[in-house]
Amino acid sequence: MARAARFTNRFDIVLFGGCILLSLVSMVLPPNLREPVAGALRRSLVAPLVRLQRGAEKWRGAYLTAEREELRRDTLALAAARVPTLEADNDRLRQMLGLGSKLQWGFIPAQALQGRGRADDFTITLSAGSRAGIRERSLVVAPEGIVGMVQTVDPSMSLAILFAHPDFRVSAMSADGSAFGIVQPHIAGNTTLNPTQTGSLQSERWLLELRGVPFRSTLKPGAVVYSSGLGGIYPRGIPVGVVLGEIKTTEAWARTYLLRPSVNPAEISSVMVLTPQRGTAGLNNVWAEVGSVDSATRRIVAAGDSLARQAASAEAAARRAAIDSTARTYRDSARRETASTADSIARVIPGAPVIPRATPAAPRPADTAATRGARP
Q1: Is residue 223 a contact partner of residue 241, using CB atoms and an 8 Å limit?
Q2: pTM here?
Q3: pLDDT surpasses 70 at 36
Q4: 3-state secondary structure the chain
């Protein structure tokens, strides 16, 4: 074993020395002898290495191409996934702008951060505090209606309870003022509801109850319930919820109705906090016209999109007309040059066949290009 190892080491050394010697000899060879030797080496010893390098380059190029393609697909997928979110954010911002334009003064915009993992999940954290003018017991609203009430205020943030909090109470009434009552959180498990009644709410615990309605007053499913202004905290005319139906209780001289809140808790992201002065001044017809403001904004956006499509269609028609005009000019010029060349050949070479002049094409109607190729 030791002799075989020594023989192998000596052979490697001799082979290495031979390679060095051949390289030195090839360097000192004259050019007329150096190129044949190099060509023979490339065709014999170096050819497998060249093929190996070529294959490695191809594999490297394929790997880089696949990586770029995967990155491009991921980018497109991410952009496509963000489109619905951006549309929802834009719709929400339009609604907030509509509400702000109706309130005009006395409100503080804030971001609602819903706490996760808390023991009480009926509270939200607002991104504004006493420095922005928020005070305790200030009303938190959204474009859809009542969200809750500020409970704790810090200099840069505040804590508010939602409408499903056990301490939430608001005096409410029907739209026509024929029925009054007190809205409070619904106790889950007392009623059996189907998914069509709860709507997009995740569970029954987010529902509300309108209690203490006089027995002579009846509300139909789908009726909107507003704040009545009694009590001095919640101004009159803010949507609280929508009637789902009447539920049976032990009260013999009063009715209790189950309400779906106007604000979906899953969509609480941007809110407005009303100052006490704004609540005292009243909010008549603010929420009654928020929907019309949002509808007007949507009509303006749709009109802008229609004008953009018309402009694109007109531009495409003009481009197509210019292309057709250039093509006709080129064809007419080519025909004139061909006829002129034939006349010259006939004058220089007697007896040469005369090529008849091409009859000019009839002009197209002016709207042919726009009718045939105009596509937005």
Answers
A1: no
A2: 0.53
A3: yes
A4: CHHHHHHHHHHHHHHHHHHHHHHHHHHHCCHHHHHHHHHHHHHHCCHHHHHHHHHHHHHHHHHHHHHHHHHHHHHHHHHHHHHHHHHHHHHHHHHHHHHHHHHCCCEEEEEEEECCCCCCCCEEEECCCHHHCCCCCCEEEECCEEEEEEEEECCCCEEEEECCCCCCCEEEEECCCCCEEEEEECCCCCCCCCHHHHCCCCCHHHCEEEEEEECCCCCCCCCEEEECCCCCCCCCCCEEEEEEEEECCCCCCEEEEEEEECCCHHHCCEEEEECHHHHHHCCCCHHHHHHHHHHHHHHHHHHHHHHHHHHHHHHHHHHHHHHHHHHHHHHHHHHHHHHHHHHHHHHHCCCCCCCCCCCCCCCCCCCHHHHHHCCC
CB burial readout 349-370, b (16+ within 10 A) else e: eeeeeeeeeeeeeeeeeeeebb
Q: Which residue has the tokens 């380059």?
A: 57
End-to-end CA distance of the chain: 84
- Kindly report the number of other CB atoms within 10 A of residue 205's CB atom: 15
Q: Is the pLDDT of residue 39 over 80?
A: no
Least confident of 51-55, 144-148, 213-217, 296-300: 296-300
168 Ramachandran zone, left/alpha/beta (phi>0; psi -120 to 50):
beta
- β-pair type (254-261, 208-214): antiparallel
Cα 41–chain centre separation: 62
Distances (CA, A) of 259 to 167, 187, 207, 229, 238: 17, 12, 6, 19, 15
pLDDT in tens, 196-253: 454 545 467 789 999 988 888 888 899 999 988 887 778 888 899 999 998 888 877 8
Candidates 221, 273, 281; CA nearest to 247 is 221
Tokens of 206: 């987010």
